[in-house]
Structure formats: C-alpha cells, structure tokens
Amino acid sequence: MRMLLIGYGKMGQAIEHVALQRGHRITHKIDLSNSASLATVNPKTVDVALEFSQPTAAYSNIYQCLAKNIPVISGTTGWLAKKEELCAYCKVYQGTFFYASNFSIGMNILCKV
Which terminus has fewer CB within 10 Å in the chain: N or C? Predict the structure, then answer.
C-alpha cells in the first residue's frame, strides 16, 4: 500500500517503521518543515493518508486529502470542534474518512460501555 504520512513525530515514525516492515511504501512524509507540500501531492501516487499531526493543522490536512479524494485515517486529537463540517464534506463528496483519538481496541470498547 502507498501511504501519505502526515505528522512525523513519535507516532509518525512508529507508523513508518511498522509499515515498511510489512511491505508498505511511504510515498510522502509531511511535517511542520514541509507542510505546504501537501498541496502538491498527486492523489494517483497515494492509496491512503495517515494523519497524526497537530490539532491546529489536522482540519486543513484532512480537508486537503478529502478534496483530492485520498482516503484519510486520523489519530490527531484536539480538532473535533470542526468534525461535523469535515464529515458533511466527506458525505457530499463521497470521501473516506476514519478518525479515532485512541486506536487501542480495549479503550474503544471501554468508551462504548
């Protein structure tokens, strides 16, 4: 799978390590030093965007990916005030968007209880 990695902190580096071990390819790495380059990403070179950036950048990152019809998985926290707006945009344009503030199965089960 060809992955666009947005956010290259501890989580981004861990994702890259595991993805490469499993035979996936990181086609682009976006972080604070090159955030403007997200606008130039060709969607034909990416199967999925993994967004683990900062709360102040997450909305824009996710929106840009959805606008290019790139499916997005986001684990960034602190941006949910604009969640409904992104979900509506995703529905209108039939995009693919998954977000969770914690990807632990146990934590997600606990939140449902």
Answer: C
